[in-house]
Amino acid sequence: MPSTPVEQAGQATGQTVLIIDDEPTACVAMAARLKHLGYRVLQAGDGKAGLEVLRRERPDLTIVDWMMPEMDGPSFCEVVRQDDALLSSQILMMTSNDQPEQIAEGLARGADDFLSKAASKYEITARVQAGLRAAGLIRRLEDVTAEIRRKQEALERELQSAARYVESLLPASGSIGPGVQMVCCYRPSLGLGGDLFNVVPWSDDLLGLYLLDASGHGVSPALRSASFSTFLRRESLLRHVGSSDPGAILTEANKHFPLTEDGHYFTIVFATFDVRCQTLSYATAGHGGAFLHRTSGEVCWMARPNLPLGFDPSTVYGTEVLAVEPGDRFYVLSDGLYEVPDSTGTLWGQERLEQLVRTFGHRPLTEVLSGAVNEAVRWLGHEQFPDDVAVMAVELTEADRHE
Fold first, then answer.
1. Which long-range contacts (CB under 8 A, 24 or more apart) does 115-119 make?
2. Residue 45 C-alpha from the chain's centroid
3. pLDDT for residue 60 is more than 90
4. pLDDT of residue 402
5. Is the pLDDT of residue 12 over 70?
6. H or E element: which one contains 44?
7. How many Å from the N-terminal Cα to the C-terminal Cα in the chain?
8. What is the rounded CA–CA span in Å between residue 112 and residue 54?
9. Do 112 and 185 lie in a common domain?
10. Number of domains present in the structure of the chain
11. 133, 24, 27, 2: which is closest to 125 by C-alpha?
């Protein structure tokens, strides 16, 4: 007699079914039927032995009897659902009592479907096939998830490599010229950003420095920042601008780095210390994170209402000049330090940062920067900043200053 379409659909699949039943006759009968349909069949005589087989073999479908000694079917299901490695296993519960209350209990405790011991061979085949279809979909989903995880891990490794490259472009803390000390701090966020800062040594008495931020996160803004940093090297600036004037530098950079097709842009502050004349010249383009902390205690923020680079190629950026004296400190920082929210969404903000700098006064720059970062972390509630934190703190000192 030829097999029915239902029986034919399950033949020669190569899938594995585990039967857990303490009644040998019922177990052998079910195994024979499933083997006839082309399935590989495993058997266990109780719930504990079934768990061992399930962990070792990872069958596509487990058929478990409700009533068994030591560990019954529902208890078996609960153990499986509490094990992350077995959580997705498909379980078909067999029972001679198929009352709604019992079915509800079995489903609540972890079974995926029910099979009455009085079911016909056609129903048995259909329910087994349904369980195996679900198992196949889950396995494919697990494979896709695993592949996504592998790709995510590979991407994270690439981002970490790119972050190390970005950090390699940053200057080291210490003396950057006669009578000028600098302390730096860089705390990258989870997503690779586009914050970069560096020093441009014009001459022994003239030092340039900048901090730029490319909008967005990821490899693209980091690469754009790296490209921009090449433009901001001394030799490149002398070739393209022919001047150390910050405003002229930003005006020329504005022509070289227009908005991207996705609308991304740069903000930047560029400053020049003239150690002999004791002046600080600076220009900003959409960047508000720069201030001068004078020996008198006065804090002067240096933001100007102007466009970031790239919005309008005809924009001309002006240069501001301030007199400085030994002991004055110039801070340039990304907004990632002060635009951090607490649990209510309230930002730490520039005013709290300014108050902290006033409180620390003229203690060593390393203490001021570590104090600012620690306070931002306390406000944030955890160690991982949502945006890159980049800070340069520069102090004109009395020692070694050219006369």
1. 115/63, 117/26
2. 48
3. yes
4. 44
5. no
6. strand 40-44
7. 111
8. 16
9. no
10. 2
11. 133
Backbone angles phi, psi at 234, to 5 degrees: -55, -50
The per-residue pLDDT for 9 is: 46
Give CA separation, 334 vs 69, 186, 309, 322, in Å. 67, 10, 16, 21
Residues 362 and 246 both lie in one domain: yes
The CA distances from residue 272 to 163, 218, 236, in Å, are 27, 30, 16
* Residue range(s) defining the domain that contains residue 113: 5-143
For 321-380, the DSSP string reads EEE--TT-EEEEE-TTTT--B-TTS-B-HHHHHHHHHHHHTTS-HHHHHHHHHHHHHHHH
- How far apart CA 377 and CA 127 sit, in angstroms, is 56
> What does the alpha-carbon distance between residue 193 and residue 158 come to, in Å, rounded to a whole number?
13
Q: How far apart are CA 346 and CA 339, in angstroms?
A: 9
Q: How far is CA 293 from CA 170, 276, 355, 396, in A?
A: 23, 20, 11, 11
Residue labelled with tokens 């096939």:
129
Stretch (H or E) spanning 16? strand 16-20
What are the beta bridge partners of residue 331?
291, 393
Q: Determine contact, residues 37/125, Cβ cutoff 8 Å.
A: yes
Name the residue among 188, 228, 168 with its Cα closest to residue 337. 188
Burial 94-130 (b: 16+ CB within 10 A, else e): bbeebeeebbeebeebbbbbbbebeeeeeebbbbbbe
Task: Show which of 108, 143, 178 is a domain's final residue.
Answer: 143
The number of C-alpha atoms within 13 Å of 314 and in the hemisphere containing its C-beta is: 0
CA angle 268, 276, 292 (to 5 degrees): 40
Looking at this protein, which amino acid is placed at residue 145? T
By residue count, the chain amounts to 403
* Unique residue bearing structure tokens 């002060």: 338
Tell me the per-residue pLDDT of 256-315, one tens digit each, with 9 for 90 and over: 999 988 888 999 999 999 988 999 999 999 998 899 999 999 999 987 789 999 999 999
What CATH number did the domain enclosing 22 receive? 3.40.50.2300
pLDDT at 34: 93
- Contact call for residues 153 and 86 (beta carbons, < 8 A): no
